[in-house]
Design a protein that fits this description.
By secondary structure, the protein is α/β, with parallel strands linked by helices. The protein has an eight-stranded mixed beta sheet with strand order 5-8-2-1-11-15-16-14, with helices on both faces. Strands 6-7-10-9 form a four-stranded mixed beta sheet. The chain is globular, with a radius of gyration of 20 Å. It starts with 8 loop residues before the first helix and ends in an 8-residue tail after the last strand.
């Protein structure tokens, strides 16, 4: 009888070993909610978009309950440039005036969200798009930022201060993957929208959902204890140590690490920042012992570099 299999036996054995190696993590995360914040360079590369969509679909098909919260910084900046609207960042946050918030809302909810949903749905009808404005999901309040002791106004920028996860839980119960854009209604100014930091929004949602883990995609390999020394990458640290490090971090990293800190202090088992420029980084983080970035847990134990 002629063997028609294309895969050599040794390669098949390697594949089987890889699958079996993920078994402890499949058991750990099965039926558990994992919130993934998606953004940065991973959003603008077709290859990385497809790899991310495959990761999220894979999680769903092996019994994990993924929830995606996305930003859209590169796309927003591109659209603002095309419309000749100035783009400015202060303290790691985008300054958003009345003109800019319309662009932010249009790009996040009208462009990025349906594109990401379509990418995931190429693997089956499993994803659905939501905005933080839908069904009272997010409620926001305006915020500023303190730079060198001075209070800086950021315009239509806010924090998520209320979360009603009912809509997300309903979609999860129906077997769908909620994909959520980081826009929130302004609780103090009815009818107005706020640009909320997607890292913070994902953290607040993870807490409200009692998620098992928060995973934040970034444009760097992880947190460095002594940037720019690339040998100082931290693979694991506790909330207490992150609290000590937070004031020393560069401004762009602060919102991401604050989101991780808030999540674990709010009851999420662990939060990790990972390099979204690495294909399938979500699966590597969740289903291997090594992980791929920096994980934060609640506690006082030592830093591991």
């Amino acid at each position: 009888m002629t063997d028609t299999h294309d895969t050599p036996p040794d390669l098949a054995a390697v594949k089987a070993t890889t699958l079996i190696g993920s078994l402890p993590w499949l058991k750990k995360f099965r039926d558990q909610i994992v919130v993934v914040k998606y953004g940065g360079n991973a959003m603008v590369s077709d290859e990385l978009q497809e790899a991310f969509a495959q990761d999220i679909a894979y999680l769903r098909y092996v019994g994990v309950q993924p929830v995606v919260v996305h930003g859209g910084g590169p796309q927003i900046s591109n659209m603002l440039d095309r419309l000749a609207i100035p783009s400015e960042f202060k303290g790691g946050y985008r300054v958003t005036n009345t003109e800019a918030i319309s662009v932010v809302r249009m790009v996040l909810t009208g462009q990025v969200n349906p594109q990401l949903v379509a990418k995931i749905n190429s693997h089956g009808p499993i994803a659905t798009g939501l905005s933080g404005e839908d069904a009272g999901l997010f409620g926001g309040r305006r915020r500023g930022v303190v730079i060198d002791g001075e209070d800086i106004d950021l315009g239509r920028v806010g924090d998520v201060v209320e979360v009603d996860p009912t809509a997300v839980l309903d979609h999860l119960a129906a077997g769908r993957i909620p994909v959520i854009s980081s826009i929130a209604p302004d609780l103090d100014h009815p009818g107005q929208s706020l640009n909320v930091n997607a890292d913070a929004a994902a953290s607040a949602l993870a807490i409200a959902l009692n998620a098992r883990k928060l995973v934040v995609l970034t444009d760097v390999p992880g947190l460095y204890a002594d940037w720019p020394n690339r040998e100082s990458l931290v693979s694991h640290l506790t909330s207490a140590q992150l609290t000590e490090m937070l004031p020393t971090l560069e401004s762009g990293m602060i919102p991401k690490m604050r989101a991780c800190l808030d999540a674990v202090e709010g009851g999420v088992d662990a939060a990790a920042i990972i390099d979204g420029r690495v294909p399938h980084s979500v699966l590597v983080e969740l289903f291997t012992n090594e992980g791929i970035g920096t994980e934060v847990v609640l506690g006082q134990s030592g830093v591991t570099a």
